[in-house]
Every structure is written in structure tokens, then in C-alpha cells.
Design brief:
191 residues, mainly beta, four-stranded antiparallel β-sheet, 43% strand
Amino acid sequence: SIGKDMATSSVVTALYPCADGIWIGTPTALMRIGRHGGRPEELVRLPVVKTICMNEDGCILAGTDNGIYRYSPAGGECTRVNMNIAWSSFRDRDGNLWFATDNGLLVLRQGSPISGLDNLPPSETALYTHIMLDSRGRLWLGSTQGLVLMPEYAAKGAGSIARRFSVEDDSSHIPHNKIRNITEDGDGNIW
């Protein structure tokens, strides 16, 4: 549990549990609680940490209001690796890190720099707020312009043409274009 001091003095904006403990994002910092508990330790000041994930070499990537930062727990160094505001992230089964950002979808493949994908449906105003890989290997993106599905992700490594579902599309049955969270239930339904 997060101690009383943490709960009353900070808002938690992101959590990432791992073998070493729990990484915590707040509006002002990246923090960590060790696997044996204790008080949260502030590691580096960052503006509004929205998402946290770990890359293959054990470094933490924190998506913030000021871009994506790489924090090395071993050396304590923190560097900005991308200037996009990142809202959500995940690590796929191949070890690639995905980021839903204000400017589209970014991927960090092992051994490569962060790059964008250009096969999303065109939109000049879509802000991507959530990203999820379902049990069938389909990549789902929540955005301010509806829900995006990349159906052939599993077979083509995100090379498929995406489909956008929106309020304007009568067949999509979504109540609003602002999709902030996506989840899959035990029967494989997407919510």
C-alpha cells in the first residue's frame, strides 16, 4: 500500500509494478517503492508522469506532459528521448514498447530509436490516449476521434491498415468519440 504521507501529499498518475517494486508517477516526479515496501523514493522530477514501462535493459521509460524520458536505475541518469506527450504505453510479447501520444502512435523496437507509424487512419486532430493488445493479437487505440483497430498486428507486426470507429459511423455503436480507456473481458469483448 502507499503510505499516508504519499496519499495526502501527491496524486498518483501512473503505476508500474515489477519485480523490484512499484514505479509511481505523480504530477511532479517519478518515484519508486522497493519490493519490501517502505516510503516512496523520489528519483527524478518530471512534469505529470502519465505512463511508465520498462525496456529490455531494465531502464524505465516515463511518458510525461513534456515528452518521453528514459531513466536508468543503475546510474540515476534521466534523458528525454522523445518530445511527444505520451498518455499510455505497453510492452508487447516481442519486447517492443508502444506509446499512445498527442501526435500518433510511437514504437520503440529493441535496438532502434523511437519511431512513428504512418498506417493509421488520417486525422489532423486525433490525440491517442490509450493503447491495448487484445488476446487475439489485435492492437486497439483510444483517441479523441474514436476507437482505432489494427486487426492484423499479430501477423504483420503492426503493418496492417487500421480502421477507425466513431460516433459518425452508424455500425460502430460507440457512444462518444473520446475513448480514454480500453479493456478486454474474459469473453474477448472489448470495452
